[in-house]
Structures are given as C-alpha cells and as structure tokens.
Recover the amino acids of this structure.
C-alpha cells in the first residue's frame, strides 16, 4: 500500500520537471562586436560571436572556434520588453566588459562582474576620486536571434 503514494510522488516530480524544461530552453544570439572586450578571466577580440544561454551558463564562441569562454549569469525577465536581442557592455575609457545578454524574447542574463572589471573600477577610483567618475558608460550592441 505504501508504494503507491511514493510512485505517485515520483510521477508528479517527473511531470513537474518536464513541465519546467521549456522555461529553461537555451537562447542563442549572433552578434558582431566591433571592439575587444573582457568577460570572466578572458579578453576576446573584436569579431562575430555566437552567444548561447543555457540555464545561467553563457557560452561565447567566435566563428572560428578559436576564442571561447563560459561564464555564470543570473537570468531574469525585465519589467519592460524591447523584443530586441542585444549584448550590453560596461565601458571604462577604452576597455569594455560584457555585462548582460538579452534575447529577442527579453530573457535577460546578468553576468557576474569579472575581477578585471573590478580592478579597473578600483584604478579609476584611485585616479579620479575627486571627480567621482567611476560609473561605467553603458554600450549596447544589437544581436540577431538564431
């Protein structure tokens, strides 16, 4: 008799897991980035990239497969919808850091700030403390859903 409730629980758990799977489907965008940029512990050159968001892991690969990186991100759905895929970068002088990936369905993933970006912010604070100008310029690069 006790096996039936356990089987029912297991079946309900499986159905719940299958129902949740579409919410975590991967997002793929193609983008041409016109400048060198940093993410995680890697600096990537300007070029064409494929960006794949798989359950809070973002993989960024260039067309040749020569440059690739995977980073952890926090996924969310913003209050306002744009319907446009894009990458959002933080710019500090001539340095760019990938900060956010937005898919055409407005699924948005914020990347964890890299050590290199934190170091640039600290350097700017040291140099420009009197001017209070460590806030990054936000740069958006349009992407195409694939």
């Amino acid at each position: 008799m006790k096996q039936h409730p356990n089987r029912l629980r297991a079946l309900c758990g499986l159905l719940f897991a299958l129902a949740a799977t579409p919410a975590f489907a991967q997002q793929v965008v193609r983008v041409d980035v016109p400048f060198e940029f940093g993410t995680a512990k890697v600096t990537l050159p300007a070029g064409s990239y494929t960006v794949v968001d798989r359950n809070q892991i973002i993989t960024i690969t260039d067309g040749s497969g020569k440059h690739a990186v995977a980073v952890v991100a926090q996924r969310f759905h913003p209050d306002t919808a744009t319907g446009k895929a894009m990458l959002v970068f933080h710019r500090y002088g001539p340095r760019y850091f990938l900060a956010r990936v937005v898919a055409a369905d407005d699924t948005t993933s914020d990347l964890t700030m890299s050590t290199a970006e934190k170091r640039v912010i600290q350097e700017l604070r040291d140099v420009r403390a009197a001017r209070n100008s460590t806030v990054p310029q936000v740069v958006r690069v349009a992407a195409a859903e694939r």
Summary: The chain has one domain: 24-145. The longest strand covers residues 68-76. Residues 12 and 123 are 53 Å apart (CA to CA).
